[in-house]
Amino acid sequence: MNRHSSYWVFLVHRLSGIALALFLPVHFWALGDALQLDALLAWTEQPLVKFSEWGLVVLLAAHLGAGLRVLALEFLPWRDWQKGLAAAAAALTLAAGLAFALAL
Amino acid sequence: MSALAVEVWRGGAQGAFQSFEVPRHPSQTVLDVVTYIQRSLDATLAYRFACRVGMCGSCAMSVNGVPRWTCRTHVDKVARENKLVIAPLRNLPVIRDLVTDMRGFFDKWARAKGSFAGTKTKRDDFARVAPDSADRRKVDAGIECIGCGVCYSACDVVAWNPDYLGPAALNRAWTLVKDERDVVKHERLRAVAGDAGCHACHTHMSCTERCPMGLSPTAAISGLKRAVLGSVLKGEL
Amino acid sequence: MSAKAQSLLWIAQRASAAVLAACVLVHLATIIYAVRGGLSAAEILGRTRGNVAWFTFYSIFVLGVAVHAPIGLRSVFIEWLGWRGRSRDAALVAFAALLVWMGMRAVFAVFA
User: Fold this and answer.
1) Considering the entire predicted model, what is its pTM?
2) Together in a domain, B162 and B114
3) A66, B123, C67, C71: which could form a disulfide with C16 (CB 3.0–4.6 Å)?
C-alpha cells in the first residue's frame, strides 16, 4: 500500500500527540517541584536530557504544524494546493528544531 | 514476450493467494490480466466487471495494496519486476475471490441519509437552481460519485472503526445538505455528526488521493464539519 | 453519548487547538530565548515569581491542554485500542483532571 504525504503528516500528528500527552504530566510534576529547580536544572545539563528536550521541542512543533494543516483543511475555503500544507507543516517543524538546536 | 507473476486472492475471509503466470502485452490493463486468468487458466475465479471502459466502477479491486479500477489500471504503471498482487477491496466482506459484499457500504449510505427528500410533486413547476450559485458549485463538485467503493477501501478510519460511515456516504450527504431543494437538512446533519460520522475524519485524504472520479470526499466532509458547527451554534442539532 | 455531545467534543477540540496554537508559539519562542546561555533556577524564578501576566497565560495554557489532550487521545483509544463504552470516557475525564491538578500546581510553583 503506497502512502501519500497527507497520511504521513497524520501519523506524525497522532504519534507526537501521544508522546506529548505522556510527557506533559512529567513536565508539570517537575515544574511543580520548583523549589528544587536548581537540582533539576543541574540534571538537565546531561547530554541525553538535552537531546530529549530537543526531541520534545520538535514533537511540539510537529504537532502544531500538522494541527494547523488540519485547521486549514477544515475551516478555510477548499483549494487543491492544500495538500502542500503537509510540506508547510514539515518546514515549520524543521525551523523550530533548528532554532532550538542553535539556542542550546 | 515477458510474463507476469500474478498473485490472486482465492477464498473468502479465509483463503490464500494463488500464483499464475500471465503473458504480458503492451497497453494491458489489470482487468485484462484477471480476465485472461479466468478464461484461460482457472475458470473458477470469481470477479466483477461490467463496462470495462472506466465508467461503472464494478471492476474495483486492490492492486498491490491500492484500491483501483482494474480496467483503468495499466500493468505498465503498477507491475514492478513483472509482479502483481490482486486482492478484493479492503474494508468489505469477501464473498469469494475478488468479489466483495457491498451491502454494508450502501447501508451506511442510507444511515447517512444519503438520499434526496423534497416537497414538490409532478404537478409543480421545476425548481430553479442557478448552476453558478456557490452552493450548487459545491454540490456539482461531489455529485459524480458512482458508488464504486474505492474511497471506502482506501480509508484507514473505516478499517479502524467499523461504525464509521465512510467517505462516499458522507460525500453524498454533503451534496444533499447543499441542495437547496432538499428539506431534511437537520436530520441529515444529525445523522452525519459524531464519532461514526464526519468528526471521525482525520484528513488522511486517502479517499481524495484514490477517487477515480477526481472527487474530494475530504472537502465534502470538511463542509459537513462546518455545517454541523453552524447547526450546533444555532441550537438546531 | 449523543451526536450533539460528540459534535461539542469536536468543537472543543478545534477551539482549544486555536488557543493552544497561540500559546505554543509564545511558549516555544520563550523557551528558545530563555535557553540561550544556560538556565538557572534563580534566573528563571526571578523572572517568573509574582508575574501576574505569565501566571494568567500559563493557566490558560494548562486549561487548554486539559481540554485538548484527552479529546485527542479519545480518537486514539477508539481507533487503535478499540476501547468502547463508558470506561473509556471516564478514564479520559480522570486524565483531564490530572492535567488540571498537576498543571496548576506547576503554575503556582513557578509564577505565584
Assistant:
1) 0.93
2) yes
3) C67
